[in-house]
């Protein structure tokens, strides 16, 4: 299956349920509800910590802003650590995740987009994961979209065995704190992470504000940003995909950017690419005085390294 096949295929034609994925999702969601009946403060704080570690450090800072868009650079060992953290979110291995997201950007809200709300909000949120192959191909098929990762043996291995770190953490939690900690730290925490991450695919392509005139339906959403550590500034992101910073205004809360900024201050991150907001404002003024603040301004491609303020 190549890119031409992906563009031609409609989600509604892919009607077969992926029973392995669907079964895992059902089990996790059921046990997440069960966790509510076994509340402990230890389990709660373990869940909060692992939610941040997996979805902010792992998915947001790792899979998304580093591996997919290369918005900054860090040492290879740290890159691998962020990748392992991301596998704890149960969103697949890096080759699958990055390939899917790069295709999403290339065909946003058009034929070939793996998860566009044009095909329905449910489809964009989680239907695309449950139905058909939905990009669950072997590593060699996905490699054409991620040649930078496919040539690295670690990424090939961790993509194939992405579930191993999660199982290992589950065993440790079981040994240390018993089943209540496992229910909160693995099942409930993972479901919260999945549901909030999927909101970026569904909610921020359906509702919100648009600062930039992009060719897709992307929007900015404060409440999604708060639930996803900053990923909700999605219109900003689609206008400036390689920018490591998504919350481009001081009031746009972006915890993932704060983490990247901190790595830079510690000397662990370099070559940060950050959208030049001042150039965007200049472009807005140049269009003409008849523009209102609610009108869209064209996205400008400028990015500046190490623009930290």
Order of helices and strands: HHHHHHHHHHHEHHHEHEE
Structural class: mainly alpha
Strand arrangement in the largest pleated sheet: 1-3
Main β-sheet description: 2 strands, parallel
How many H/I helical runs?
Answer: 15
Radius of gyration: 19 Å
Shape: globular
Please mark out the parts with pLDDT under 50 across 5 or more consecutive residues, or reply none.
Answer: 1-13, 287-309
Which characteristics define this entry?
single chain, 309 residues, mainly alpha, two-stranded parallel ribbon, two-stranded antiparallel sheet, 4 strands, globular
Walkthrough of the structure:
The protein is 56% helix and 3% strand. It is built from 15 helices and 4 strands. The protein has helices spanning 3-8, 19-35, 41-68, 76-87, 94-106, 121-130, 139-142, 147-150, 153-160, 164-177, 179-202, 222-227, 234-239, 255-265, 277-287; strands at 212-213, 273-275, 297-298, 303-305. The protein has one domain (3-242). The protein is mostly helical and 309 residues long.
């Amino acid at each position: 299956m190549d890119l031409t096949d992906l563009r031609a295929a409609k989600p509604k034609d892919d009607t077969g349920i992926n029973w392995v994925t669907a079964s895992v999702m059902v089990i996790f969601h059921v046990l997440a509800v069960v966790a509510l009946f076994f509340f402990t403060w230890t389990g709660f704080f373990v869940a909060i910590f692992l939610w941040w570690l997996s979805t902010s450090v792992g998915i947001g800072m790792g899979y998304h802003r580093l591996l997919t868009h290369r918005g900054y650079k860090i040492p290879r060992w740290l890159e691998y650590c962020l990748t392992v953290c991301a596998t704890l979110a149960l969103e697949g291995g890096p080759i699958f995740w990055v390939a899917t997201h790069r295709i999403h950007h290339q065909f946003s809200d058009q034929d070939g987009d793996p998860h566009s709300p044009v095909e329905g909000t449910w489809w964009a949120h989680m239907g695309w994961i449950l139905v058909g192959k939905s990009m669950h191909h072997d590593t060699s098929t996905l490699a054409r979209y991620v040649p930078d990762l496919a040539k690295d043996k670690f990424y090939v291995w961790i993509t194939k065995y992405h579930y191993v770190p999660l199982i290992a953490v589950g065993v440790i939690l079981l040994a240390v704190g018993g089943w209540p900690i496992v229910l909160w730290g693995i099942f409930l925490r993972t479901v919260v992470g999945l549901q909030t991450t999927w909101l970026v695919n569904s909610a921020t392509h359906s509702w919100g504000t648009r600062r930039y005139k992009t060719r897709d339906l992307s929007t900015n959403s404060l409440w999604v940003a708060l639930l996803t550590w900053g990923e909700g500034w999605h219109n900003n992101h689609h206008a400036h995909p390689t920018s490591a910073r998504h919350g481009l205004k001081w009031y746009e809360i972006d915890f993932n950017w704060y983490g990247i900024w901190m790595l830079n201050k510690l000397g662990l991150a370099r070559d940060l690419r950050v959208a030049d907001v001042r150039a965007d404002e200049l472009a807005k003024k140049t269009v003409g005085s008849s523009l209102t603040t609610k009108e869209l301004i064209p996205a400008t491609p400028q990015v500046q390294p190490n623009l930290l303020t």
